[in-house]
Design goal:
Length: 418
């Protein structure tokens, strides 16, 4: 069962949605030209590889506690559709996001009645979409629709609220990420890539040119073309037959070698251009090469990955739940369990202090380390008994001693319960 088995009929009473800048909201999908660059492909692949490690969970927040929900939403998060694994699905939506600065996902559902007789959506699959053209429309009640035209000229038209829409660099356009036209603004990046390509081509051409001619065989006087050709043929024959690397020529000719001196690109120039390209995506050279420290990965996670994780989680939550469900705490979260492997000393210390004081639910402790909340820990809070209120410390110490405080010590300090 494929995506287009679920196509909706086109509505007749739709018109282009109004944009504040007066433009028509018609957006073509976009430039793939920067993705012919190997460095750009490597950068995005690096981000995609990390995002594939995320674990999606449908949870319900109850205050600061989280209850995991195992339902059809969790099922499609684990197995999005019949041809994609969870990792495939994440790879597709992240590549689409960086290719178009927009990633669109269609959640297929059927309408069923629950135990109370109320209609509700039952989700069946999630499909990443790659339209070649997007149009934003509205009906007479100002309800927003999205019309997507694909390369095979198939058209999918949906209420906008039924589409999961993740935007990257959402700024100038009212509906889409990217520039005012809803497209990636890669002009500055293209200049850098062109500069990098020109340098690489310059080095390659210099190498090719330098190997075309090895030297000159200079005759002692003027000779005709036939004698010159014979002299060159004899010289080349000696080169081919030479075994010891030493050969001689008479005084009628002089061999002048060409010194090969290929001008390499200044390493600082290369580093400058590479860093400018990498900076566009928030990826350092150490992350790209895989030779990073824990601190460098932590910076990469916080600067680049975490904002993406938050954006994806919020986009899924916005689309998959009704307002009532969101009001009572239902949401989709992506847990970075497999990402957080760097130094966690500060996290451990914070969890220890807050946990010992009974200020954290047990599931909060698990989520702090990127682990899934557990049903059996729902609403559970633990508190250490190694601490006591300072106002009751002396009384606590004297329990069962029967000495009226003679063994309590002069200072009245708070001691751990052994």
């Amino acid at each position: 069962m494929g995506l287009f088995n679920f196509l909706k009929k086109r509505r007749e009473n739709l018109r282009y949605a109004m944009m504040l800048n007066g433009q028509y909201p018609i957006f073509s999908q976009f430039g793939e030209n920067i993705y012919s660059s190997d460095i750009i492909q490597s950068i995005i692949d690096c981000i995609v590889s990390e995002m594939q490690k995320l674990t999606p969970r449908h949870v319900r927040r109850e205050g600061q506690d989280m209850q995991p929900i195992n339902d059809e939403i969790q099922r499609i998060l684990n197995q999005p559709n019949e041809i994609m694994t969870r990792a495939d699905f994440m790879s597709k939506i992240i590549w689409n996001l960086f290719l178009n600065y927009n990633s669109l996902i269609y959640p297929v559902y059927e309408t069923v009645r629950d135990g109370n007789g109320k209609l509700r959506k039952r989700y069946k699959a999630l499909y990443p979409l790659q339209p070649s053209k997007v149009e934003m429309l509205e009906d007479d009640e100002k309800r927003l629709y999205i019309r997507m035209t694909f390369r095979n000229q198939s058209v999918l038209e949906l209420p906008y609220e039924e589409v999961i829409h993740i935007r990257y660099k959402y700024s100038f356009n009212e509906y889409l990420g990217g520039n005012s036209q809803g497209q990636p603004d890669n002009e500055a990046l293209l200049q850098l890539l062109q500069m990098n390509n020109n340098m690489m081509e310059g080095v390659l051409n210099a190498m090719k040119t330098s190997f075309k001619v090895n030297g000159f065989l200079k005759a002692a006087g003027y000779i005709d073309d036939e004698k010159r050709d014979n002299m060159l043929a004899e010289f080349n024959k000696q080169l081919e037959n030479n075994k010891n690397g030493i050969m001689g020529i008479d005084n009628k000719a002089e061999y002048i070698p060409i010194e090969r001196k290929i001008q390499a690109i200044d390493p600082e120039t290369l580093k400058f251009i590479d860093s400018r390209i990498l900076r566009n995506y928030g990826v350092s050279l150490a992350i790209l090469s895989g030779d990073y420290t824990k601190a460098q990965y932590q910076a990469f996670y916080q600067k680049k990955l975490e904002p993406l994780i938050i954006a994806i989680s919020q986009a899924f939550t916005k689309c998959l739940f009704t307002q009532r469900e969101k009001d009572i705490g239902h949401e989709v979260i992506y847990l970075p369990q497999a990402l957080i492997f760097m130094d966690t000393t500060q996290v451990i210390e914070a969890v220890r202090i807050l946990g010992d004081a009974g200020d954290l639910y047990e599931n909060e402790k698990r989520v702090a380390f990127g682990l899934e909340p557990l049903e059996e820990l729902r609403g559970v809070r633990m508190q250490s008994l190694n601490y006591v209120n300072v106002e009751h410390a002396r009384e606590y110490q004297l329990q069962g001693t029967g000495d009226g405080g003679s063994n309590a010590g002069e200072s009245g300090e708070v001691k751990e319960n052994e």
